[in-house]
Design brief:
There is one protein chain. The chain is of the alpha/beta class and about 300 residues long. It folds into 2 domains: about 1-215, Rossmann fold (3-Layer(aba) Sandwich), CATH 3.40.50.300; about 220-295, Alpha-Beta Plaits (2-Layer Sandwich). Helices cover about 35% and strands about 30% of the residues. It has 11 helices and 14 strands. It has helices at about 40-45, 70-75, 90-100, 105-120, 135-145, 165-180, 190-195, 215-220, 235-240, 265-275, 290-295, and strands spanning about 1-10, 15-25, 30-35, 55-60, 65, 75-80, 150-155, 180-185, 200-205, 205-215, 225-230, 245-250, 255-260, 280-285. The chain has a 6-stranded mixed beta sheet, with helices on both faces. A 4-stranded antiparallel beta sheet has the order 2-1-4-5, with helices on one face. Strand 9 and strand 10 (about 205-215) form a beta hairpin. The relative contact order is 0.14. The structure holds adenosine-5'-diphosphate and magnesium ion.
Length: about 300
């Protein structure tokens, strides 16, 4: 369980986070989505006790990140952005080193072996980290984050730079592990959210602009948008009155972009006939998650 209450963070004069609040419970895999510079990494550093918030309270499994940071660190596995690793260490050696920070001596070997198996590192486990491909380094990063079996996982862009096969593997791995844990992962890839997450928090310029179930966001992105061109001028207010129409944008040449709740094509034709107008063209605009994301984060 993670609870973030009214957190703001200031770097010099710049506010990287402004009054951010949300909670994440066990079993949730939350996608932290936002353009570069939105404040995702900053939020993650605060949750993992790497940075203090300027104001606000963050608790992890009930422990305060400022007052009880050692307890918080015990609960959290963290894969930082850019996945810093000791390239001169061997995979098994490095994981044993990390395990030794958290676990008593007699538990280390077993934890390392389990993690190597779980993350699919077995064929590479005897190599130096510096010799591994990006995908395998990412697995090492995940393995070090999970080696002490933390309740909470904070993964900062865990799949950045992976090829499509590696991407599928790592996503599946996170999804499986996430069932038993509280997970926040950051990404700027919309597809990632639909592939892994059950909830999405979109952050832009340090503020939360959406916090929804992943399927709700997908649904929102599937609402039809029509571009319609009339023969004669039309008052947008009349279009707005048509049942099912949510929003009307006026474009040049008697053309409108209509956001609708349902399929309103029939209603638009009837409207044209009843007002002695004509429909010159009508086409459906493709909406997808990327459009929703762009709409929410364009300012
Ligand atoms: P994201 O991870 O979403 O790309 P960050 O949290 O890294 O965003 O950054 C949010 C904003 O804070 C950016 O404008 C970034 O330049 C700024 N920032 C991040 N870290 C520092 C720092 N240590 N000092 C000054 N500004 C920073
Ligand atoms: Mg970042």
């Amino acid at each position: 369980m993670i609870s973030v209450n009214n957190v703001s963070k200031q770097y010099d004069k710049q506010w990287a986070l402004s009054d951010v609040s949300f909670q994440v419970t066990k079993g949730e895999i939350v996608g932290f989505l936002g353009p570069n510079g939105a404040g995702k990494s900053t939020m993650m550093k605060i949750i993992t006790c790497y940075l203090p918030a300027t104001s606000g309270i963050v608790k992890v499994e009930g422990y305060d990140t400022l007052e009880q940071s050692i307890e918080v660190r015990k609960q959290v596995g963290y894969l930082p952005e850019h996945n810093p690793l000791y390239l001169d260490m061997y995979v098994r050696e490095y994981l044993s080193f990390v395990a030794g920070i958290h676990l008593s001596k007699n538990l280390i070997a077993k934890a390392v072996t389990n993690m190597i198996e779980l993350t699919g590192l077995t064929p590479e486990s005897h190599k130096k980290i510096g010799a591994l491909s990006k995908g395998y380094r990412q697995r090492v990063g995940l393995a070090q984050a999970m080696i002490h079996d933390p309740k909470v996982l904070i993964l900062d862009e865990p799949t950045s730079g992976l090829d499509p096969n590696q991407l599928a593997d790592i996503r599946q791995l996170i999804k499986n592990i996430g069932k038993e844990k509280t997970v926040i992962l950051s990404t700027h890839i919309m597809q990632e959210v639909t592939a892994i997450c059950n909830r999405v928090i979109i952050i832009n310029k340090g503020k939360i602009v959406a916090d929804e179930a992943a399927h709700a966001l997908v649904k929102q992105s599937n609402k039809p948008i029509l571009i319609i061109e009339f023969g004669q001028s039309v008052s947008p207010a009349l279009l707005k009155n048509i049942e099912g129409v949510l929003q009307v944008e006026t474009l040049p040449n008697n053309t409108f972009r209509i956001h609708a709740q349902t399929d309103v094509r029939q209603a638009l034709f009837t409207f044209a006939v009843n007002t002695k107008n004509t429909v010159l063209s009508m086409q459906q605009e493709n909406t997808n998650l990327e459009n929703v994301f762009r709409q929410l984060t364009k300012n």
